[in-house]
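Sequence design from tokenized structure. All designs in this work follow the same two-part layout: the structure record, then the generated sequence. An example of the structure record is given first.
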């Protein structure tokens, strides 16, 4: 935030009696549409002294993930109120309902950079466990002494980005991977810029989630679950790449079985969702492969019968790869579909993975596998059903 220049005094009695505006430094941190003010200081009049004064304040504030803003006002209280008002105004820039472009404004304090903020994504690395936090502290790059305080500030930072309209991505920060990254790149792990470079790369290749305003405890749990799914996906890929499946009896090509398994898995997933109907859906697959339990899920939604199914493509690829690994190696496993629609009981469908095919269990077997016994206070009316018939038709791949 740049300092607002004092208004020129008009030759009126009112302006002659108005208190003089002075420059103040407001130290604090933006939190959503508000601003947490830590202190307000009068800036020195001498330019050199002022510059040094502001630099020292900025360094101290940045250590606590804060900042310094300068503003002209008649008193410290007015300076604080002006900063709060401007932060609320910036965070409250509403998009036009039809064009989805930022609302136009004639306010000179709203710069083009402010208007571009919603178009700029934000990436925030999250250290999810106290053990990882302590491991990173050895590099002296964290301005906090305990993990709980750190997470509080991370949550404030995430909310501040989303309040400005930014698409915000939370990235799992793994200290071991960070050390390897710095070693391979021959960069200093204690430098803050190294942490930023690693975070940018992890956002493209590592475990990440879109932040939607969930509380920090929920977010860390989601990151852990996504990391487990990412690991399962990588294991499934290795199984498909390395497993000795033997030659296809139809064409003799050993690689054809892997391609067939992937194509079949994707067709099965599409068939499950195509017949799921309207509502919110979650498909989960699980297999036991070479002593490893691999699990992945994909979320999908169909609002009306005339609209296509909306699906997370990255999650769909992970589910298909794990199911394909089970199909290709003839390991045991299963698939479950959970469907929720308004004003109707939730429905749970289940399939067994046997000899490379999805078969239909009984409703009782689905409940025993995926349900929970009701209690006296349980009002759930979830319906457990056997999965519908997914027998391949003539249009399916013919490789075995």
């Amino acid at each position: 935030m740049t300092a607002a220049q004092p208004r020129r005094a008009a030759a009126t009695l009112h302006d002659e009696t108005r208190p003089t505006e002075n420059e103040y430094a407001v130290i604090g941190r933006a939190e959503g549409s508000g601003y947490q003010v830590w202190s307000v200081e009068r800036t020195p009049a001498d330019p050199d002294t002022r510059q040094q004064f502001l630099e020292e304040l900025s360094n101290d504030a940045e250590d606590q993930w804060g900042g310094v803003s300068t503003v002209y006002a008649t008193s410290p209280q007015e300076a604080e109120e002006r900063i709060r008002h401007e932060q609320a105004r910036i965070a409250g820039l509403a998009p036009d309902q039809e064009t989805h472009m930022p609302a136009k404004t004639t306010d000179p304090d709203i710069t083009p950079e402010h208007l571009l903020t919603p178009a700029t994504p934000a990436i925030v690395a999250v250290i999810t466990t106290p053990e990882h936090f302590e491991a990173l502290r050895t590099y002296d790059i964290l301005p906090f002494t305990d993990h709980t305080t750190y997470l509080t500030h991370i949550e404030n930072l995430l909310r501040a980005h989303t309040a400005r309209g930014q698409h915000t991505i939370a990235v799992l920060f793994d200290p071991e991977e960070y050390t390897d990254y710095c070693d391979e790149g021959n960069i200093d792990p204690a430098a803050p810029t190294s942490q930023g470079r690693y975070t940018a790369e992890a956002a493209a290749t590592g475990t990440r989630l879109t932040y939607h305003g969930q509380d920090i405890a929920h977010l860390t749990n989601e990151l852990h679950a996504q990391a487990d799914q990412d690991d399962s996906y990588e294991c499934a890929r290795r199984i498909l790449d390395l497993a000795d499946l033997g030659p296809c009896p139809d064409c003799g090509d050993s690689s054809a079985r892997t391609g067939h398994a992937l194509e079949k898995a994707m067709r099965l997933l599409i068939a499950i969702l195509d017949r799921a109907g309207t509502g919110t859906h979650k498909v989960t697959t699980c297999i036991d492969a070479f002593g490893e339990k691999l699990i992945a899920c994909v979320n999908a939604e169909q609002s009306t019968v005339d609209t296509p199914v909306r699906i997370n493509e990255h999650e769909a690829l992970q589910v298909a790869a794990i199911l394909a690994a089970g199909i290709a190696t003839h390991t045991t496993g299963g698939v479950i579909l959970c469907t929720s629609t308004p004003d109707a009981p939730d429905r749970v469908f289940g399939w067994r993975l046997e000899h490379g095919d999805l078969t239909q269990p009984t409703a009782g077997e689905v409940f025993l596998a995926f349900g929970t016994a009701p209690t006296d206070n349980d009002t759930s009316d979830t319906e457990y059903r056997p999965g519908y018939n997914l027998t391949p038709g003539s249009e399916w791949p013919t490789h075995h």
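Residues 1-17, 90-107, 372-379, 394-400 have pLDDT under 50 and may be disordered. We note this feature because it recurs in several other targets discussed in the main text.
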